[in-house]
Sequence to fold (395 residues):
Amino acid sequence: MACNSCSTGKDGQPKGCKNNGTCGTDSCNKLTVFDWLSNMSLPNGEKPFDWVEVRYKNGRKEYYKNTENLSLCIGDIVATQAQSGHDVGMVTLTGELVRIQMKRKNISVSNDGALKIYRKASQKDIDIWSAARDKEESMKVKARQFAIDLKLQMKISDIEFQGDASKATFYYTAEERVDFRELIKVFAREFRIRIEMKQVGFRQEASRLGGIGSCGRELCCSTWLTDFRSVSTSAARYQQLSLNPLKLAGQCGKLKCCLNYELDTYLDALKEFPKTDIKLQTEKGIAICQKIDIFKGYMWYAYEGEWMNWHRITVEQANEIIGFNKKGKTVTSLEEYVSDVIEDTKTEFENVVGQDSLTRFDNPKRNRKRKNSRNRNNRNKNRRKKPLNSKDASK
Fold:
């Protein structure tokens, strides 16, 4: 869905529009909704849907009623109604798809107190809006210093100005509840503006900052993931992962969102496995499960008192033994089932590198000085063994 300015240049590098996600076509944003009904005309007598989707900074989206019947399209900068004053945002969706989006988010269309679109933003509105956004970075540095001076356990994540520069929203993250009443007084006295504090989660902050994950790709939350579902340690247990916080936590400090991607597949595969707390009754002793392999369908059991000796059997064999135990029968031992397990053949891999050896740097270097001295000694020996000529023999 990228525009023409995102094509490749002469040197093979992407050109880019250098608008940082705010281009006119609204193509370089993960929150973009493709309007696949834009080329379709409405039936005769049908009026276009009079609601519009508008996006602001940090991915905030709101829906407004187009009471003035303005001719709007995706990418237009509009002045919208706010609680006090007006705000400035960009139109991201129009038409019948807005109705579907509002229905999905449970937003009522027949709302008398709905916010409205005032007008298309004039050059004066855009100048005020741009000047206010230029102040955000310097204000964020000062705001963080004020929070540190008051010894508050919080982090100012970002600042968003309203379009008319009459109000500023401070986004912050905190582990616990923070009493920032004194901080608001300091902000109001320093910045001379109305202040609103809004807490965001650590996942939302990571999606805004972006970065590279342990898989080597960009973070899912900053590229395509929009809904943050809760992730628990049980997802790691079902996938037989070690509960290591350093490996399971993402850059936000929480459990990785990708732990939920394959969880349903693991749960379907585990339906065929017996519960690991079920003990196998044999004549040799009681066997307890030690480990399972979901991909190959194997289970390892060990007898009580012989914890070092593990016996591998298949899932079908384990279910068969459990079925015998439920009928009051016991099998002789696990060894008779282990012999039936076929060992996997070892796969031989070819050298895809070619003639270069992967261990060529592991060979010890030869001592050239020793080799040169050995050659010199051999030449001296050859000279001594050389037979004398006739003149030397007469002497």
